Amino acid sequence: MPRRSQELAEFRDNGFVVLKNYLSTPQIDAIGESLACFMAGREASHGLRNVLLLLPKIRGILAEAEAENTASFFASRTVSPVKSIFFDKVPGKNWFVPWHQDLTVALKSREQAGGFANWTSKAGACHAEAPLSLLQSMVTIRFHLDESGPNNGGLIVLRGSQKLGRIKRQDIRKLIGATIDRPVAFPVHCDSGDLLVMSPLLLHSSARSRNLLPRRVLHIEYAPLGDLPEPLKWAQDPRQSCGQTT
User: Fold this and answer.
1) Rounded distance between C-alpha atoms, residue 166 and residue 202, angstroms
2) CATH (domain of 10)
3) Per-residue DSSP letters for the chain?
4) Is the previous residue joined to 56 through a cis bond, with omega within 30 degrees of 0?
5) How far apart are CA 217 and CA 95, in angstroms?
6) Is residue 176 included in any domain, yes or no?
């Protein structure tokens, strides 16, 4: 329990924490095999949205690992998965991500609701920037199936930036420039099986992979299911019927 309290304090202070060796080798292998089988022959083999809806086996593995309980612990309230994405930086799909916060949520349809703005559509789901209060109640967990670090496009985070709330785009560059003499921009290193728990409001970026070694990541966003105003509904709601694997 003291270790968990220390991890929670680190998460609240820095906006992120790495949980070492969270997934076992059999769990990592089973997740990787399920993804590989589903994506075999697909053109976009570097990424997949709605993983938990499409692959119930992975949902079961994460339930066995008590991932939802872990997310709820760091959120300090009951949360459930509302977005799940798999991605890997591979030759031909080796991208750079500029500094940003994760401000958008995936919703079933576009509706009039206060505080939701800048609507877009991705992979059949509507996305909107969410109110600050909702983002503050959410937690993101990145499940690392491979080692991830500076050489293969791992995350770089700005420690404590989640405390600043929603940051205007023109202010992000000022913040990053102000860190030159202060060690707050931090490259996150994760080994296979580690979890990176982070606030969606944490400023983060990533470079292109230099060695192109596998960097498979399962990115899952957790939120309190009842915090959406009517008539909005989550695009991925664990209470709805789930898709089947092929």
Assistant:
1) 10
2) 2.60.120.620
3) -HHHHHHHHHHHHHSEEEETT-S-HHHHHHHHHHHHHHHTT-S-TTEEE-HHHH-HHHHHHHHHTTHHHHHHHHHTS--EEEEEEEE--BTTB---EEEE---EEEESS----TT-EEEEEETTEEEEEPPHHHHHT-EEEEEESS-BSGGGT-EEEETTGGGG-S--HHHHHHHHHTTTTSTTEEE--B-TT-EEEE-TTS-EEEPPPSS-----EEEEEEE-GGGSPTT--BSS-TTS------
4) no
5) 14
6) yes
Is 125 inside a domain boundary?
Answer: no
Q: Is the distance from CB of 185 to CB of 160 less than 8 angstroms?
A: no
Tell which residue, 11, 34, 28, has the closest CA to residue 64.
28
Q: Does residue 237 sit within a domain?
A: no
Domain hosting 20: range is 2-92+135-223
pLDDT score for 240 = 66
Tens-of-pLDDT digits for all 246 residues of the chain? 567 899 999 999 999 999 999 999 999 999 999 999 998 877 766 789 999 999 999 999 999 999 999 999 999 999 999 999 998 877 777 778 899 999 999 999 999 999 999 999 987 789 999 999 999 999 999 999 999 988 888 899 999 999 999 999 889 888 887 654 554 688 999 999 999 999 999 999 988 888 877 889 999 999 999 899 999 999 988 776 444 333
